[in-house]
Amino acid sequence: MGSDTFSGNNRAMHAAPREKESDPVFLPFARPTIDEAMIAAVADTLRSRWIVTGPRVAAFEKALSERFGGRPVRTLTSATAAMQVALELIGVGPGDEVITPAQSFFATANVIERAGATTVFVDVDLATRNIDFGAADAAVTPRTRVLLPTHYNAPLPAEALAAFARRHGVRVVEDAALAIGSRAGGAEVGSTGDLVSFSFHPNKNITTIEGGALVVNDAEEAAKVERMRFHGIVRLQDGTRDVGEPGSKYNFSDVSARLGLEQLPHLDTWCRARERLAHRYFECLAGDEFLTPERLPPRDNPGHSWNMFTVLLPLERIGATRRHVMDAMTKEGIGTGISYEAIHLTSHFRAKGFREGMFPVSERIARETLTLPLFPEMRESDVERVCDALGRTLRRKAA
């Protein structure tokens, strides 16, 4: 899962300068935490002249592996690349089916389509926005090879994923782009399961500028990922190179890895900060006549790392479009995002026969969702400002 659609004239991740002293600083919906020590560490890596895949990549992969209970981890240029390689690792191709939610970022379906397999969409739960396991069970056919679910407004239950795999004899590729730092059933997301992909995009809980990682099961799978992320090349004893099967170019850089090494020790602290801010959102929105509890994420959500705080707008009641609300929030100096569109209603899948009404929960989320600002450097007063501005906007539109 990747980047949000956002509002704010490309300012969604940057603080815009004030036009006059009384103007509030623009509050983006996401912003990475990068301090001077991190900048200095990256600069040292640049000065070393070893900036492509090297010792810092190995160190970052080792640090991630330690976090995930010793499971092998290989870094790639994005979570999208990680999911693409995961499907290649399994051998997914034409004639195979992959079950995935209709409500997620476009990447989850794109990688299936690029593998030549058939994307089988299922609907999601309205509150967690996670895949509906009952619908997924019903979608299984003899051609099903993989379940590719997204950790969304709550971590996916590890036992439910494992049970699905056992029940149907399929592999599971977890899209955990939003979930680094989350825990499910007391275990870190990534420390259990089959194949798990993570994102280090700047709007995630830690960043490497761009980047992703794939958690695999054993050394054999890790070695294959290494080949697949760098052209399929293997080095022979005489110093020459060979390609047994074509690979891609997804190898991670030492520059990105150095930033990741600086970011990773802060992950738990930043997740706790996100949780405090999310709780402040719940407090500020309590009793709101427009944003009632069913329009908010699950409040009792242990283990969630709170990458986003999303609401469902009461658009019919206020007689306005989401675009109107987003533009009004921009005028208030607040960036917002859309997380996410319904994938089956993109032009690509419409051409394959998908239409409105097929996955109603995913479609409702796509129509009504709005992502509010949430990042560790925010203050509780920022949350209060967002809630005040959103409340004013909704009341004004409804008047």
Secondary structure elements and pairings:
Elements: E1 5-7, H1 36-48, H2 55-67, E2 73-76, H3 79-90, E3 97-101, H4 107-114, E4 118-122, H5 133-139, E5 144-147, H6 158-168, E6 171-175, E7 183-184, E8 187-188, E9 195-199, E10 212-215, H7 219-228, E11 233-235, E12 241-243, H8 254-263, H9 267-285, E13 309-312, H10 315-318, H11 322-331, E14 336-338, H12 347-350, H13 360-368, E15 369-372, H14 380-398
Parallel strand pairs: 3-4, 3-5, 5-6, 6-9
Antiparallel strand pairs: 1-14, 2-10, 7-8, 9-10, 11-12, 13-15
Helix pairs in contact: 1-8, 2-8, 3-4, 9-14
* Quaternary organization: single chain
Can you name the CATH architecture of the largest domain? Answer: 3-Layer(aba) Sandwich
Helix content: 25-40%
- The top-level CATH class of the largest domain is Alpha Beta
Q: Indicate the CATH topology of the largest domain.
A: Aspartate Aminotransferase, domain 2
Query: What general form does the structure show?
Result: globular
Number of strands: 15
Radius of gyration (Å): 21 Å
**Euclidean distance between termini CA atoms:** 37 Å
How would you describe what is shown here?
With 399 residues, the chain is of the alpha/beta class. The protein has 2 domains: 5-33 and 266-398, Aspartate Aminotransferase, domain 1, CATH 3.90.1150.10; 36-264, Type I PLP-dependent aspartate aminotransferase-like (Major domain) (Aspartate Aminotransferase, domain 2, 3-Layer(aba) Sandwich). The protein has 14 helices and 15 strands. The chain has a 7-stranded mixed sheet, sandwiched between helices. Helix 1 (36-48) packs antiparallel against helix 8, helix 2 (55-67) runs parallel beside helix 8 (254-263) and helix 3 (79-90) runs parallel beside helix 4 (107-114). The longest helix has 19 residues, at 267-285. The two termini are 37 Å apart. The relative contact order is 0.17. Residues 8-12 and 14-22 have low confidence and may be disordered.
